Amino acid sequence: NMGRKFFVGGNWKCNGTTEEVKKIVTTLNEANVPGEDVVEVVVSPPFPFLPFVKGLLRSDFHVAAQNCWVRKGGAYTGEVSAEMLVNLGIPWVILGHSERRQLLQETSEFVADKVAYALSQGLKVIACIGETLEQREAGTTAAVVAEQTKAIAAKVSNWDNVVLAYEPVWAIGTGKVATPAQAQEVHADLRKWLHANVSAEVAASVRIIYGGSVNGANSKELAAQVDVDGFLVGGASLKPEFVDIINAAT
Ligand code: PEP
């Protein structure tokens, strides 16, 4: 994949108890996987478990928050600021997940502001984009993901700390995984868009990962696509098969 390091993120969403979290982390800590030079592994527990997971997790895996506030912290009840994540040594944050775009009405503009602010504070960002089934059936997939990426590109000048997660909404939590050809097509289109609208360098270097019903069985064929640089995994990241997905890197 053109020297882009494979990236596997595990999005635990709003799941888990202390006991369950301990069990998942133990499984990951005992897993036989390639080194950090081959695959970058990041798991994203809910906020309350972040320090606990960070403390317990093997040192070659890292943690991500699932969201953060759009600007500097202050009088924003219920929010968690980028500065707090930095203060806790949390290196990554997932932003713009489709569940937040859909259930909490986060717009592309708002997501882009969050991405820019998180980067400005030194966080690394997994920025999520993706079309709905309706948009795909209307033939607007390329336009939708370009628009979502454009909002981010308008506010971000340095893409070194950005991973772009292409997550078709119709594939998230549905068991309907995109075919390798469908994923490859959108990833290649995104790279073309970045080439034309950002730079050749960013188009070649930014990692574009796929998310949506990835599991141990389908990950290998998806990973073989030239423009698929890894995965963002929901449901399967809570199960031992997450280890198989990490091993799809090789
Ligand atoms: C996700 O939430 O980012 C996701 C891809 O979920 P799932 O793997 O469960 O479809």
UniProtKB/TrEMBL annotation:
UniProt KW keywords: Isomerase
Q: Which GO terms describe its molecular function?
A: triose-phosphate isomerase activity
Q: Name one GO cellular component term.
A: cytosol
Q: Which InterPro entries match?
A: Aldolase_TIM, TIM_sf, TrioseP_Isoase_bac/euk, Triosephosphate_isomerase, Triosephosphate_isomerase_AS
Is Isomerase there in the keyword field?
yes
Q: In which pathway does it act?
A: Carbohydrate biosynthesis
* Biological process, per Gene Ontology: gluconeogenesis; glyceraldehyde-3-phosphate biosynthetic process; glycerol catabolic process; glycolytic process
Superkingdom of origin: Eukaryota
Q: Does the keyword Metal-binding apply?
A: no
Q: Which HAMAP family match?
A: TIM_B
Q: How does it assemble?
A: Homodimer.
Q: Which family does it belong to?
A: Belongs to the triosephosphate isomerase family.
UniProt protein name: Triosephosphate isomerase
